[in-house]
Amino acid sequence: MMQPNQQKKTKTRVGIVGGGSWATAIAKMLLERGGRVNWFMRKADSIEAFKVLHHNPRYLTEVAFDMTRLNLMDDLDRLIRTSDVIVFAIPSAFLKNALSRSRASLREKTVVSAIKGLVPDDHLTIGEFFNREYGVPLEQIVILSGPCHAEEIALERLSYLTFSSRDLKIARFVAQLFECHYIRVTISDDIYGAEFGTVLKNVFAIAAGICHGLRYGDNFQAVLIANALQEMDRFVRAVDPIARDIKNSAYLGDLLVTAYSQFSRNRTFGTMIGKGYSVRSAQLEMLMIAEGYYGVKGIREINKQYQVHMPITDAVYNILYERISPTIEIQLLTNELR
Fold this sequence. Notes:
Blueprint lengths: L3 H6 L4 E4 L3 H11 L5 E4 L3 H10 L16 E4 L2 H6 L3 E4 L3 H9 L9 E4 L4 E2 L4 E2 H9 L6 E5 L4 H5 L4 E6 L3 H11 L4 E6 L2 H23 L4 H22 L9 H12 L4 H10 L4 H8 L4 H16 L4 H11 L4 H9 L4
Parallel strand pairs: 1-2, 1-4, 2-3, 4-5, 5-8, 9-10
Antiparallel strand pairs: 6-7, 8-9
Helix pairs in contact: 9-10, 9-11, 9-12, 9-14, 9-15, 12-13, 14-15, 15-16
């Protein structure tokens, strides 16, 4: 892997894996600094349509790209071989399958996770997955987090991102690739807090959506989110007991925007569940992945080891996986909140 000082001397080659709205927003941010971007999309027909339209044919279609600065490809091995920094921006549920056909080594690469979820079945954070399964040193893994919806990136509305790594020099270097007139950046060494925070905020956003669908009001939602932050704090302290300020934007800020925003797919998913949709029908109608659906199961499994009191997480799990009535489960939850 090239070190930050080496990367400054030669043009850093950045690759993106994913074809959705978040990947599209990431491409927009990275291109603000000039240069070129390698971009892997799974479907060749999407790439061909992109080349004709000069925008992603399915997501954030209002964002136009200079095609001379994009290297679109459907060969993941080629992207890995020709990139120094690789940003993964695909749903966690698809990560293992996407990488299963790849033979290129990631060991010497800087891996950036823009995935706000856990690897299903393995119940690993994305950083742990790349470290254990692909031999990427933790110092070369950067976690991207913070309150930042793709739709607002498309509109160039001021947003803040946090880049977390055990190596702060690597975190700072990657952060500088994203920084532009509408993106402010901070760095952190709290990789576990950042990853678990992003998973939990999606779970809590589903809870907020369920309550909205059940017609609970703003007063209750405020209490729910206040308790959610405490629940997040208890869990991340149990998993990784280091000094952190849970009120920072990477934790509280991301929780608030995901729980309240009209752009939040997890809140939208929860609202549909609260209104009586089945999990399957809500997923089919949304046509997008609500990461919290997979995340809540992973958090439940991980918490068997730590035994943290997590009433909101348990309520969401019971509704989504045990098929307990949202009306009944949320009524029970109201007795746990303060």
